[in-house]
Design brief:
The protein is mainly alpha-helical. The protein contains 20 helices and three strands.
Length: 498
């Protein structure tokens, strides 16, 4: 066998190990009994150790060099690029650190699930301290290899090519633009009748499944379940979505499901012929979040989509024939209501980036050692007051314990949400310019065209080109905040002034 063929075979084995690990993690979040926590943590740690040993063997490095002489097609060349990037990042991490990190994050997330409900920050602090310390240990090793700072070392694990200078430029721009903009929108937006009420889980699930199906989700290759925190995982042939249902607020669940559907459509649209190789997997989490936000925000908060979805919503949830409550105008005002709230996953398009900037600043502070883990709530409250005028002192459940990310070791992930939002806006602006009749298409339930466009330009391309190159190729522009600012201004302010 050639070096390239041997390398591909090893990547196939890695793919299968990662596949098994993903679904053990999914089961832990969705179905596993509480008593299975320790056994599951040990199983996950062992699988990750085996995968790490295979991915980082010296033989892989030798095969990569030999395969460079053999790879002639663009897909093989791109596959080698991604394999080498992955190998370089992983090979410097000691085997025992992989195991310690896996055990620490499993235990921390298991305790977080219980203690978040009890508003018990103190109980999770020592576990989070261990996760942060191990994350810093890993980041230090990677930063020295690539000559980047600690935060960039972590960012690179979620999307290649991102620098803190780029993130700072984007976030400083949004932090200077959004607060006054949000205040003006809140001051001008009309009153609405809240769509609060008692909505059963069964009715909300029926709504979720019908909306998922209409956007193109393939239930023969995927499923919907519930978990503490909505997420999606899986691969092209088996894509899992989770959501959570609110007893009195179906919109949170509805849009969380639409968000995860965007992720899942990306997974289901990846190139089948390269599905088991790194090049056939999705680009990093900035692009992944752009696909979820493209659907959730750009498509599913549009006038056309709301006109399409409203009859289904009413069929599944409306218990009385209240014409004013369930009117298009009132529904739009609920969907697009801008509010300075405390929960990130419930935030509107306009305030959401501020939630991300808050977390970014805190992450940087505790990575630098400027902030102790135990003091995170104080920093959280200070920034919540600065951005939203809110005081969350003593409220850990809806404060610094609301997200799973830090507890599962996903430190450095949060910027991908807002970078994904500006990517989604730039992609959607290109789509609108190409197909001006988008609103009419959506109103008529025609989503094949937009999904086909995403399939052609993003999904089917896998990792053939890096993220920033792909964005510029598709939109003819480098990534910036311009399209996002234009989008929110048009949807949330200009419409009120016209």
């Amino acid at each position: 066998m050639s070096a390239l063929a041997i390398l591909k075979e090893k990547q196939l084995t890695l793919h299968h190990l990662q596949h098994a690990t993903q679904y053990l993690s999914w089961d832990e979040s969705v179905m596993m009994p509480v008593g299975g926590g320790n056994a599951r943590a040990n199983s996950l740690a062992k699988l990750q150790q085996i995968a790490h040993n295979l991915a980082t063997s010296s033989e892989i490095g030798d095969l990569i060099e030999a395969a460079k002489e053999e790879a002639s097609s663009p897909w093989d060349q791109a596959n080698l690029r991604v394999i080498e990037q992955n190998w370089q990042r992983a090979a410097v991490i000691p085997d025992d650190l992989v195991v310690r990190m896996s055990l620490a994050t499993s235990k921390c997330t298991q305790v977080w699930r219980e203690k978040r409900k009890e508003n018990d920050w103190v109980a999770v602090v020592p576990l989070l301290e261990e996760v942060v310390n191990l994350t810093k240990e890993r980041a230090t090793i990677i930063s020295e290899l690539f000559n980047v700072n600690l935060y960039e070392a972590l960012l690179g694990g979620y999307e290649t090519g991102i620098t803190t200078d780029f993130v700072d430029t984007v976030f400083d721009d949004l932090a200077s633009f959004l607060p006054d903009f949000v205040n003006e929108v809140i001051e001008r937006q009309p009153a609405h009748l809240p769509l609060k009420g008692e909505y059963s889980d069964e009715d909300q699930k029926q709504l979720a499944e019908e909306l998922m199906l209409s956007l193109g989700f393939n239930f023969e290759r995927g499923r919907l379940d519930t978990s503490h925190h909505p997420f999606s995982c899986g691969e092209r042939w088996d894509t899992r979505i989770t959501t959570r249902f609110g007893a009195d607020d179906f919109l949170e669940s509805m849009y969380a499901t639409l968000h995860e559907t965007g992720h899942a459509l990306y997974q289901q649209g990846l190139p089948a012929e390269h599905a088991n190789q790194p090049v056939g997997k999705s680009l990093g989490m900035m692009v992944h979040e752009s696909q979820s936000l493209f659907m959730e925000q750009q498509v599913c908060r549009s006038d056309g989509y709301i006109k399409f979805a409203l009859p289904t919503v009413k069929k599944c949830l409306a218990k009385e024939d209240n014409e004013e409550l369930w009117s298009f105008t009132n529904f739009v005002r609920n969907v697009r209501h801008v509010d300075k709230g405390k929960i990130r996953v419930q935030a509107d398009e306009c305030t959401y980036p501020l939630h991300v900037i808050l977390r970014y600043r805190i992450e940087q502070a505790f990575l630098r050692g400027d902030l102790k883990v135990v003091d995170i709530p104080d920093a959280w409250n200070e920034l919540m007051h600065e951005f939203f005028g809110l005081n969350l002192e003593g409220d850990f459940t809806d404060g610094c314990m609301q997200d799973i990310h830090w507890f599962m070791g996903a430190i450095g992930y949060f910027p991908c949400y807002t970078l994904g939002a500006i990517t989604a806006a730039q992609l959607y602006q290109k789509y609108q310019n190409t197909f001006p009749a988008v609103e009419a298409d959506f109103e008529n339930g025609q989503f094949d065209q937009v999904l086909d466009w995403l399939r052609k330009n993003v999904h089917s391309q896998g990792q053939l080109t890096p993220a920033f190159e792909r964005i510029q190729e598709v939109t003819d522009k480098p990534l910036s905040t311009a399209a996002f600012k234009r989008h929110v201004t048009g949807r949330y302010l200009d419409s009120l002034l016209s």
